[in-house]
Design brief:
Blueprint lengths: L3 E6 L4 H12 L6 E7 L5 H12 L6 E2 L5 H12 L4 E4 L5 E2 L3 H12 L4 E10 L9 H6 L24 E4 H6 L10 H12 L3 E13 L15 H16 L3 H19 L9 H15 L9 H12 L2 H15 L11 H11 L4 E8 L8 H13 L4 E6 L13 E3 L3 H9 E6 L14 E4 L17 H7 L2 H8 L4 E4 L2 H10 L5 E4 L7 H4 L2 H11 L6 E6 L15 H8 L3 E5 L16 E3 L6 H7 L2 E4 L4 H5 L6 E4 L3 H8 L12 E3 L2 H10 L5 H14 L7 H10 L29
Parallel strand pairs: 1-2, 1-4, 2-3, 6-8, 9-10, 9-12, 10-11, 12-13, 13-14, 14-15, 16-17, 16-19, 17-18, 19-20, 20-21
Antiparallel strand pairs: 4-7, 5-8, 6-7
């Protein structure tokens, strides 16, 4: 049997699960089995676990439904485990290098123990110093293996289950399982340590725990806090049944009720039912208080006495005084300009308009992308809603007739932002925008990530220097209620790089609906508008922005490419929107479509796409037309910008590294051959699972009309979709 069984629940942490599993597989000590516990084989976490299992036989995924919670996931892992010792690792935590070797060495020194506690490091998401809360507790223990009576303060209540190694035979003998419900670590730790006979400690960090930006789920408001009392009662009843001495039962009792009082005194954890919580806690306190127990000194001791007497009114008064003294009022974010600031603050005092929706795309560049597609669908499905699009002053002329708009920075701009119930953006609203209670912010994103995004950019100096404050970025993320995702890959990346408490909507991108709803007439119309000659092969060339360049560079001699690729080839040049400064003028067979307002129209017109690392490839793949990756500087781009996956290992089609290779693919037709089609099929399966033509409808019904997820249109399977037809014959004879 393996030395260690490492159980990793993964519900809600798919974005970081790969890091957790990699931290285990990278250990120098290799005698272990790794058991990720996932929702289902087809879930995002299930996919991550399956890929790790395919490359390492020590990984054996098991499954538990989300309804089973953390306790059910860990218990599923327990049933599958065969190792001598059990380790629990949360899916967004990691083992430090050398952790398993250190544990094995310590267990060799101490001999078999029921429990081996070790230190862990709590690391903030972004700012702040790491902490090691277990170190003070473990410092006051004997050096070798010892009986629990020799360190009665080590009750298991103050330490998470993943801060110890548990002997599997001991767990089986005591029939230990994680109790259902929230705060399962409290029940597990208290019960397990009460039954342990021989323990030891390792005074070094084994687990690096990533503290969520939004805080622990256990600290969120809700009725689940009543379950803390269930776990407390479980631990106290089990301890009484084992006949623990007063020396051991006293610290257990004190630590359990320290947790109870912390919850009872926290106004936001219990928005309702505080009196009932206090009364039940008081009953448990009096029923299980050990003989001779003396409350701790200071304010905590006062709270113990009030709980023992059942004096809720006095306890509530004490809590109110403490809150008034310690509460700090955060400054209100404000727009610049005194007069505008005062107007905005005045508008914030007025009630929200329940029918007002504000949209913005690309920092006000016009009527475009996902916000425009959602707006159009909302006019159809929710005509009672009033919609206002935000644009920069020099882009107002681009807004279609009949679409209401406000110029960014104007008085009207701040007025609608203050009153809108719904705010929809594919980037972010201004720093001074206040997230009002009752308002709903939808972040639609504007691409599937290949390059690093969000806080992942901080480790790339060129990108970080141009990104501004990451702390302010995360503050803007905190305004999001919903975050739109085009595929499971995006969901995992957004979860990691934009940590927040928003809800993921895996609905596809509304802007891509047109790829399934447009017909041959639409394609012909757009091609005529762009001036594409009849019978020409229209090749869309769309290179991405490069942070290490100061201006736009095509990266390819387009006239030379046309001459070498074939006489029927014309190139549609679309530079990144950062370089949209008006038309550059058409030359020869090169048509500049950078200034065209709709990237979707340009894609419909093109028979084939050439791109380097632009996210346009993920959208264009919905058309099931050939894609060629021109990766002449992949190594430089990967080092300076950073990427989320290896594009050259999983491309959407053929890959060219030189202009000669690229032209040859078009001369011999290999850009659209069977291998190209096979690569594209795998790419589409991974990155186009939800773009079925009804994404906008799902968003409008869920966010703007409040319909439940089960009432939304189901996703049409990839094999049943009919993309808009291409205009030209794709493979030359």
């Amino acid at each position: 049997m393996p030395r260690f069984s490492i159980i990793v629940p993964s519900h809600g942490v798919a974005g970081r699960l790969g890091l957790a599993l990699d931290s285990v597989l990278a250990q120098s000590f290799g005698d272990f089995e790794l058991i990720p516990v996932c929702e289902a084989p087809g879930s995002p976490a299930g996919g991550v676990a399956a890929r790790h299992a395919a490359r390492d036989s020590r990984v054996t995924p098991v499954h538990a439904p989300p309804s089973a919670g953390l306790a059910g996931a860990r218990n599923a892992g327990l049933r599958a485990a065969t190792g001598t010792y059990l380790l629990f690792l949360d899916g967004d935590d990691v083992l430090v290098p050398g952790a398993l070797a250190a544990l094995d060495g310590r267990l060799t020194d101490t001999g078999p123990v029921d429990v081996l506690h070790f230190e862990h490091e709590r690391v903030p998401w972004w700012e702040g110093e790491p902490a090691n809360p277990a170190a003070p507790l473990l410092a006051r223990t004997p050096d070798g293996a010892f009986a629990p009576e020799d360190a009665p303060h080590l009750t298991g209540v103050s330490l998470p289950a993943w801060s110890a190694a548990w002997r599997r035979a001991f767990v089986a003998e005591r029939e230990l399982v994680f109790p259902d419900g929230h705060f399962t670590d409290v029940g597990w730790g208290g019960v397990a340590m009460a039954g342990a006979g021989r323990v030891a400690v390792l005074r070094s960090v084994v687990v690096r725990h990533l503290v969520r930006r939004q805080g622990s789920r256990l600290n969120l408001p809700g009725e689940h806090h009543a379950e803390l009392l269930d776990q407390v009662e479980l631990a106290l009843v089990r301890a009484a049944g084992l006949g623990l001495s007063a020396e051991r039962s006293g610290p257990l009792f004190e630590q359990l009720f320290t947790a109870v009082l912390k919850t009872a005194a926290h106004p936001r954890r219990l928005p309702s039912g505080r009196r009932a919580f206090f009364r039940r806690a008081s009953t448990l306190y009096r029923r299980h208080r050990p003989a001779g127990f003396r409350p701790p000194p200071g304010s905590l001791g006062v709270q113990h006495r009030l709980l023992a007497s059942g004096s809720y009114e006095a306890f509530a008064a004490l809590r109110g005084v403490r809150r008034a003294v310690t509460r700090a009022v955060a400054p209100l974010p404000r727009p610049h300009g005194l007069r505008t600031r005062l107007r905005y603050r005045t508008r914030l005092r007025r009630p929200l308009d329940p029918n007002l929706v504000v949209y913005c795309a690309y920092w006000g560049r016009g009527y475009a992308c996902n916000p425009a597609a959602i707006h159009a669908k909302a006019r159809e499905l929710a005509p009672h809603l009033r919609s206002v699009f935000l644009v920069e002053a020099d882009q107002a002329h681009t807004v279609p007739d009949g679409v209401e708009y406000a110029v960014i920075g104007s008085h009207r701009y701040w007025e609608v932002l203050a009153r809108a119930t719904y705010l929809v953006n594919n980037a972010n609203f201004a720093e001074g925008v206040v997230k009002r209670p009752g308002s709903v912010h939808l972040q639609t994103q504007h691409g599937t990530p290949l390059k690093t995004m969000g806080i992942d950019q901080s480790t790339y100096p060129v990108v970080a220097a141009a990104s501004g404050s990451f702390t302010k970025l995360l503050g803007r993320v905190d305004r999001w209620d919903y975050n739109l995702s085009a595929n499971p890959h995006s969901t995992r990346v957004w979860e990691r790089v934009f940590p927040g408490s928003y809800e993921h909507l895996e609905y596809g991108y509304p802007r891509n609906d047109v790829y399934c709803t447009a017909g041959a007439d639409d394609v012909a119309r757009v091609r005529a508008e762009l001036g594409i000659p009849q019978g020409a092969r229209a090749v869309l060339y769309a290179p991405t922005h490069r942070d290490h360049h100061t201006g736009f560079e095509t990266g390819l001699d387009l006239e030379a490419f046309c001459a070498a690729a074939g006489e029927d080839v014309v190139v549609l040049l679309r530079a990144h929107y950062f370089y949209d400064r008006g038309a550059r003028g058409n030359t020869g067979r090169v048509i500049d479509v950078t200034a065209h307002r709709s990237a979707e129209d340009v894609c419909l017109a093109a028979d084939v796409l050439i791109t380097d690392y632009s996210s346009i490839m993920f959208d264009y793949a919905n058309l099931d037309r050939p894609i060629v990756v021109y990766a002449d500087d992949w190594d430089v781009y990967r080092e300076t910008r950073g990427v989320c996956f290896d594009l050259l290992a999983e491309p959407p089609g053929r890959v060219a590294r030189t202009p000669g290779e690229l032209a040859r693919m078009f001369r011999d037709g290999s850009y659209a051959d069977a291998e190209s089609a096979a690569l594209r099929a795998r790419f589409r399966e991974r990155f186009c699972p939800f773009d079925d033509g009804r994404a906008a409808e799902r968003v409008v019904r869920r966010v703007l009309l409040g319909e439940p997820p089960e009432a939304l249109p189901p996703v049409i399977p990839l094999a049943e979709r009919v993309p808009a037809p291409a205009a030209a014959t794709l493979v030359r004879s």
